[in-house]
Each structure stands twice: as C-alpha cells, then as structure tokens.
Design brief:
CATH topology of chain B: Rossmann fold
CATH superfamily of chain A: Phosphoribosylformylglycinamidine synthase subunit PurS
CATH topology of chain A: Mth169, Chain: A
Strand content of chain B: 15-25%
Shape of chain B: globular
Order of helices and strands of chain B: EHEEHEHEEEEHEEEH
Largest interface: A-B, 11 and 16 residues
Distance between the termini of chain B: 14 Å
Order of helices and strands of chain A: EHEHE
Number of helices of chain A: 2
Oligomer: heterodimer
Largest sheet of chain B: 9 strands, mixed
Strand content of chain A: 25-35%
CATH architecture of chain A: 2-Layer Sandwich
Structural class of chain B: alpha/beta
Strand order of the largest sheet of chain B: 2-1-3-4-11-10-9-6-7
C-alpha cells in the first residue's frame, strides 16, 4: 500500500520560504496569488499492513519522525491500495 | 570534570570542541561515538555543532534516534550536565530535552559571523562565572537558528527564567538588528527547567583563544568546570 504524507508548517508559524516564493510570483505578475505555504511530501510503501492498521501507523510515524509537532502539521492519503 | 564530546556522522565541530575542552581548558575529555551505548563515566556530555546526518528531514531530527542518545536522555533526566552547541542544540530540541523548535533564519541565509549575546543569569551551572548582564562576543554559523516556541511555551520558558542568552548589540540592548536570525524574544540559548541541560546557537568553543578573535566563550566552560 502506498501512502502520501504532506508535512507543512502550522498556520501560526511563519514560513519564510513560502513568503519568498509568493514574492517571486508577485514579481512575475501573478497577482492572484494570495499566499504560499511550502511543505514536504513523503511517499511511503507499506507491506503487510491493513488499511485499519495504516490508520494508526501513519499518524504515529508522522508525529514521531516526519513532522515536528511543535511547528508542523501533516495530512495523509492512500495513493495505491 | 570529565567531558565527553559526541560525534555523529556529519558533526564538524567535534574536534574544535575537544580541543577547547582538553587543550585550552585542561580537562580530561573523551570522544563518544553516536553508535556506542556507553558514556564512559563522563560528568558532562557535549553535543557539538555540524550537520548531523546532513540535516536531512530537519536539523537534528535523525541524530536524535542515534543509539547513544538513549543514554544521553537518561543521563540528563538523572541531572547530568548536557551542553548542546548549534546542531547539538537542535538535537536537544528534537529530543525534547529542551522546549521549542528551530526555523530557517529570517532572511533565509546561512549566517557565519561574530554576534554579541547577553547573559541573562549568572546563577546557572553554565554561567556562574559570568558577571550580571555580561555581553559575550561569540561566533555563530547556522541556517536554522530562528528559535520558535508556541506562545504558552514561550511564556513558561520566560517565567521560569530558562532563557540564558539573548542576541543584543555590544552594549547589551536587545535590538531588532542584533537579532540576526529572527529568534522569538531574541533567544540564543536556554536551559531546561532543572537547569542541567543547555543549548545555544553561538559556538563558545570557537571563542577560547585570542588567536580566534575572542576568549568570551571560556566563561561558559569555566562555569561548568567550577574552578576559580
């Protein structure tokens, strides 16, 4: 089963890299861009794990390792059964 | 006092720290390998600067899972003296031995230069030889030194007097320009609540000899060693 996890800064945390990308887009004339938040994507291949078990395992991995809960949040989805 | 300096893959200040402690401060010092499980009876563990595991994932995030870190965690809980410098500070934050997290520097630049930091307390195991409000000139060299903590955590840290060093101008004034990396409250170094674990972004081991441009880092090591 393949899982995609998206880790990004919490809304309360300033994201200077996202800000810089936003400024660059504005410089190019893309005025419709209101905000940019940058994050990280992880694709994890799980073997021998049921969908239910993945529901426990993935948040555990994300909280413990992939994201720093003080500054980051995560979302995840199954991309291949 | 017997010091142990931990080497992770990617540490690059371990030898400088070793030199500062053994050759300049004259203390028995051993190198500790991150894969070992023994602290070799040291009185103080130092996590040096560098880019442990290439800073992959987040600074300090992988080093935190090194085998030796379990012993370091137990050592700290029992009141053992632990100092984290730069990347070592980031490891202590990831490990949860110190509160908060590091973000990229505010202008997204790697900063390598001398800064001035003000000593916020002279009643700690890391600063008891300093003068009240003493300003130290010590170099920094980091990309992720922009200290962050959520509001409640930050208030608690301040209320407990855990902030040990703040970026200030040479006169000890906390100006916005002096806060190069954008750290909340200008925090450059802090301790845990018990006061036996300290992390700081400036490199005191790079300020222990006139030849290096400053000897201001010595006061930290002298405080830890506790000699007159």
């Amino acid at each position: 089963m393949k899982i995609r996890i998206l880790v990004s800064f919490k809304d309360s945390v300033l994201d200077p890299q996202g800000q810089t990308v936003k400024n660059a887009l504005h410089t190019l004339g893309y005025d419709a861009v209101r905000d940019v938040r940058q994050g990280k994507v992880f694709e994890i291949d799980l073997a021998g794990v049921s969908k239910d078990a993945a529901g426990t395992l993935v948040p555990e991995i994300s909280d413990k390792v992939l994201a720093n809960p003080i500054i980051e949040k995560f979302t995840w989805q199954v991309i291949e059964e | 006092m017997k010091f142990g300096v931990v080497t992770f893959p990617g540490s690059n200040c371990d030898f400088d720290t070793f030199y500062a402690l053994r050759d300049v401060m004259g203390q028995p010092t051993v190198g500790l390998w991150h894969k070992d499980h023994s602290l070799q009876g040291v009185d103080c563990v130092v996590l040096p600067g560098g880019f442990s595991y290439g800073d992959y994932l987040r600074s300090g995030a992988i080093a935190r899972f090194s085998p030796l870190m379990r012993e370091v965690g137990e050592f700290a809980v029992k009141g053992g003296l632990v100092l984290g410098i730069c990347n070592g500070f980031q490891v202590l934050l990831e490990l949860g031995l110190l509160p908060g997290a590091m973000l990229r520097n505010k202008h997204l630049k790697f900063l390598c230069r001398f800064v001035t930091v003000r000593c916020e307390s002279e009643r700690t195991r890391f600063t008891n030889r300093s003068r009240p409000g003493q300003v130290l000139r010590i170099p920094i060299a980091h990309f992720d030194g922009n200290y962050f903590a959520p509001p409640e955590m930050l208030a608690e840290i301040e209320a407990n007097g855990q902030v040990l060093f703040r970026y200030t101008d040479p006169e000890g004034r906390p100006t916005e320009e002096a806060n190069f990396n954008g750290s909340l409250h200008g925090i450059a170094g802090l301790t845990n609540r018990q006061g036996n674990v300290m992390g700081m972004m400036p490199h005191p081991e790079r300020a222990v000899d006139k030849l290096l441009g400053s000897v201001d880092g010595r006061v930290i090591f002298e405080s830890m060693i506790g000699r007159p």
